[in-house]
Amino acid sequence: MDIFVAEYASALGLGGTHELEGRAMLSCLVESFASSGHEVAYPTSGPRLKEGKPIMLGGGRDFGSLLQSIEAEACLLIAPDGLQPHFLEIIEGRTANLGSSPAAASLAADKLLSTRALARSGVPVAEIVDRPDPVDKGCLQYVVKPRTGSGSEGVRISSFVRAGPEEIVTRYHEGLHLSTSFIVGKEGFLPLTINRQLIDFADGKMRYQGSQVPYRTPRAAEIWEAAEKAANVLGLRGYAGIDFVLGEKPWAVDVNARPTTSIIGIARVMKEQIGDLIVRARFGGLPERVHLEGESIFRKGDLALKPDEQ
């Protein structure tokens, strides 16, 4: 099958950790699709990968117009949450979408609407706070974050229920910061890994620094139950991830309707090919479970171009 992997940050050469993370995910997926016997192409601003066919994005051509020219049999998109719905609509007008629908991506990208949808369905969430708590409850902490965004960007901890026009405030819960990575296909929900997030809390801000993949916990069944229910409520498809704070309950705090950086570690510890599973999610044939071996810890600061990706 001809597959086009459309990763936004590396295609546009955005620079910084955005491009490094994007290219690391792109490299992982292109190699996996190729190892599964597929022909793979990808857009790039210059650097080339060891596998796959590079499509140069230049001459004033934008990402959307590139997607409108897709001739592959299937496409997997990795793009900022707020841009996903529009790009997915273009993809679905051209070829088979290997990820979530535009509607599901739009809902997942909106932290206010997705949190409310999950809460209505009984999924534990970090509750939306729209007014200060009574003084007799003491000095409480809250999480202020952009209504759309990813990777803990713009997230801060505050003692005040005060947010900008494009921000929301949720209750702060103490606990272990985890993420779940899974695939949803025709046959249902396939758990991949629970991951421990490496978070820097300096200066009252939360900054994602990397992941431990997998993170083994005796509460795995409880976490997976919440993740599967959330995925069904939001209508996620293909590879997706949900972040949790594991305390008294597994509180869902963020949803990613697309591949996440945890996929880098997953590819190192999972015997199955992640690319093959993504294709099977769309066209059928998902296994009942995956097989993991070992552990991988990676940090954003360690991501860099390999010698064959120049």
From TrEMBL:
SUPFAM superfamilies: Glutathione synthetase ATP-binding domain-like (SSF56059). The lineage of its organism: Archaea, Methanobacteriati, Methanobacteriota, Stenosarchaea group, Methanomicrobia. Residues 222-283 form the ATP-grasp domain. Pfam families: ATP-grasp_3 (PF02655). It comes from Methanothrix soehngenii (Methanosaeta concilii). GO terms for molecular function: ATP binding; metal ion binding. It comes from the Archaea. Keywords: ATP-binding, Nucleotide-binding. This is ATP-grasp domain-containing protein. Signal peptide: none annotated.
